[in-house]
Amino acid sequence: MLSKAIQDALNKQVQMEAESSQAYLAMASWAEIQPGLVGVTEFFYKQSDEERVHMLKLLRFVNERGGFAVVPALEQPTLTFTSLKKLFEEFLKHELKVSNSINDLVHLSLTEKDYATHNFLQWYVNEQIEEERTARTLNDKLELIGDDKSGLYLFDRDIMNYRGAEGKK
Ligand code: OFO
Hints:
- The protein is built from 6 helices and no strands.
- The protein is mainly alpha-helical.
- It has a single domain (4-165), classed as Ferritin, core subunit, four-helix bundle (Ferritin).
- The radius of gyration is 17 Å and the shape is elongated.
- The chain starts with a helix and ends with a helix.
- The site of hydroxy diiron-OXO moiety has 9 residues, from helix 1, helix 2, helix 3 and helix 4.
C-alpha cells in the first residue's frame, strides 16, 4: 500500500512524464516543418512515444499498489524554437529536470521506507542515465558542427541510430 506522500509524488511524476511526451511531440512537429530534418523529426516522435510509456508504467504501478493514479491536465508545451541548437538545449534541460525529480522520488521512497517503490524506481534511474547521455552527446555534436551544412546533414542522418529513434540500443 502506498503512503499518501508517495502516491502524490508518483502522481506528480506521472504528470511530468506526460508533459515530457507533449514537449517532445511539439519538438517533433516543429522539426517536421523545417527543411531536411527528417531524422530529428523521427527522433522526437519516438522520444514522445517513449515518454508516454514511462507515464503509463508509473500510472499502472500506482494503481497496482492500491493507490489511485490521476490522469493529469497538461500545459501547452513550447511550440517553436529559434534554432536546432536551441531545440537540443531544451531537450537536455528537460531531461536534467526529470532526473532531479526521479532523484527526489527515490529519496522520498527511502525516507518513507517504501522499498517496493524504491525498487520500481531503479528502472527510471537507469533510464535517465541513458537519456542524459544521449542528450549530452547530441548537444556536443551540434557544438562541433556549428553552421557546417554537410555536418548538419550527417547529424540528421546519424540521429536515426540513436535509441530514441530506433528503440533501445
Ligand atoms: Fe521519461 O525518460 Fe527521460 O524524461
